Amino acid sequence: MTLHMSRRIATVALLVALASAPPLPAASQPPGGSTIEVERAWTRSTGPTAQTAVAYVAIRNRGTAPDRLVSASSPEARVVEMHETTMEGGVMRMRPVQGGVAVPPGGVVRLEPDGGGVHLMLVGPRHAFGRGERVPLTLTFERAGNVSVEMTVEAAGARRPAAEHGGHGHGDHTRDARPGG
């Protein structure tokens, strides 16, 4: 067998092996190019008999397609629900958010005490949350899928995370979007 023939046989064998190999997995980019980041995830400390805890986050969509927060969960609570607080005739009402929370491309949605009333309610905490602890939280999006974070536990009456108390903002130049729209 000549060297030229050996090379041809080796090339054919390589091509057959490549053709029969399973395809390589696609890059793990969410459909539609959505890239979700969760920032400033926090909750407040609770007492040992607390039936609920409230969680706040900022959701940044660095992608070019809209996305939607559809659910949340934590191993430290029986269930996590999305709620919206509104004022009606001088009475504060809290209702579940229907259809999730829209996160527009290039936008930031803030679920915070002063951010339009949308927040996450941790129902049935498994134990008291102590200041300084970390509580796991998984947010599920239509496009991006699951995004897991750890919330910091702040003081019971906190209005924002402790890291922001003395600051002058974070240079956030993306547009804000009203939750739920």
TrEMBL record:
Pfam families: PCuAC. Residues 155-181 are annotated as: Disordered. It comes from the Bacteria. Residues 161-181 have a biased composition (Basic and acidic residues). Keywords: Signal. Residues 1-26 form the signal peptide. PANTHER family: BLR7088 PROTEIN, COPPER CHAPERONE PCU(A)C. This is Copper chaperone PCu(A)C. It comes from Siccirubricoccus soli.
